[in-house]
Design a protein that fits this description.
flat, four-stranded mixed β-sheet
């Protein structure tokens, strides 16, 4: 009787294990299939951003505050960015001065002053000839930790 139960359990667990391996292989096969991203086309110049908000998360005092907003000109004419303005002096954007050709990728650089401790949410306004509107507002946010306090000096007697 014990042998019959043992054989039955082995059969059940063997089938379950085999199914699990088959499912895992199927999942891996699905992930391996390349997906092509379809970029919607617009008449004229266009700006399609990968992300319109960058979350710095919680970062150290005086950490690297540089980030990039990557975009594609999804239009059929060259995109010309005329200005990029931060909402305050602590947010300094940079932008490409040359026209961005249709289908080309470019980026808007942003540097936040991380010597200012505390939570922040700032914007960068981009002005261009994009047909979706002459300006686009991008957002950065996060939290900068307070400056570390120097270790207390020991007094010698």
């Amino acid at each position: 009787m014990k042998k019959i139960l043992l054989v039955a359990m082995l059969v059940v667990f063997g089938v379950t294990s085999s199914n699990a391996q088959t499912k895992t292989k199927a999942k891996k096969a699905k992930k391996a299939v390349a997906t092509k991203v379809v970029v919607p086309q617009v008449e004229g110049a266009g700006m399609l951003f990968e992300n319109e908000t960058i979350d710095y998360g919680t970062i150290q005092h005086k950490a690297n505050g540089e980030r990039e907003f990557v975009f594609t000109n999804n239009g059929n004419k060259p995109l010309i960015i005329t200005s990029a303005t931060g909402s305050c002096g602590c947010t300094v954007p940079t932008y490409p001065k040359d026209p961005i050709m249709p289908g080309a990728k470019a980026s808007i650089g942003v540097k936040y002053d991380t010597s200012r401790a505390g939570a922040f949410q700032k914007t960068v306004t981009i002005k261009s000839n994009a047909t979706q509107g002459d300006s686009k507002v991008l957002t950065i946010k996060g939290n900068v930790l307070a400056a570390p306090t120097p270790a207390s000096e020991t007094v010698k007697s």
